[in-house]
Amino acid sequence: MDTPVPDLRVRDVVPGYAGMHPLVAELVLPEGASMSVMSTLETSRELIRHSYYRYEFATVAVTHCLLALEEVLAQRLGDEDADLPELIGRAAGAGLVSAYLAGELGRAVRVRERIARGAATSGTVNPVRAVDLVRAVFDTIAVLLRPADGAAQASGEEDPRERLTLLWEEHRRAAFPESFRGVAVDGADLIMLDSDVAGLVERELERGLDGDGLARLWAGIGDLDRAVPLLDEEYCAAYFARLRTAAHLAAARHVPPAA
């Protein structure tokens, strides 16, 4: 039997096939899912793992996992006829999924739509970005299947610190968009903005921000609020949108609750 040949396009992602295992390790199948949903998600995870040998499998993983998302959303919202973008919008509007997850799901849907129109190829998503998009589907399904125990769970809302921690871990693992090194948007150097804001978010999680750190964080949020809408490359826009959400969550911890 012939030995599979690694796809040269993956050589910058991991040094060998063994490196694909930790890449997908956090794609844990959600509890309580139907057999069809579990099978679809597991297949999507394994497609990413085996994109080491066929790069296009990463994009196929993104489009395939949307089948599971559509099934769960249709059941949760009681509408078998609505299309997936409408279901995602309704779930976000009802507070069942966070704005960040809804944004990532929308990007995954657009990948599928672009391929269907012939506007993109099945090699359009790299394995690292595929993990981000597929993880959003895994996380959304886990939230939708979570038992309704208390107000926060019934609304699908995560504990703010837990959500901040998860977003920070996602951002820490994500690769900086290489083609945007040295690029400034609306006067903000993107790599410096990333470094500064990420450092402040990490400090907030580790020991909390002092007044000076909080002021710098709000300044960084202002730069992100201006820059993110101007980013027209999908991965870069998602990368900085996630950082902006994490920064807002970190800053919100210092805002007194309404009386």
Task: List strands and helices in order, with pairings.
Blueprint: H1 20-24, H2 35-49, H3 57-77, H4 84-93, H5 99-117, H6 127-144, H7 151-154, H8 160-173, E1 184-185, E2 188-189, H9 190-206, H10 211-227, H11 234-252
Strand content: under 5%
Write down the Rg: 19 Å
Biggest sheet: strand arrangement: 1-2
Are there runs of 5+ residues with pLDDT below 50, and where?
149-157
The general outline is: globular
Count of discrete structural domains: 2
List the secondary-structure elements in sequence, H or E. Answer: HHHHHHHHEEHHH
Query: What fraction, in percent, of the residue positions are helical?
Result: 55-70%
Number of strands: 2
Distance between the termini: 70 Å
Largest sheet: 2 strands, antiparallel
- In round numbers, the mean pLDDT is 86
Class from helix and strand fractions: mainly alpha
- Tally of helical segments: 11
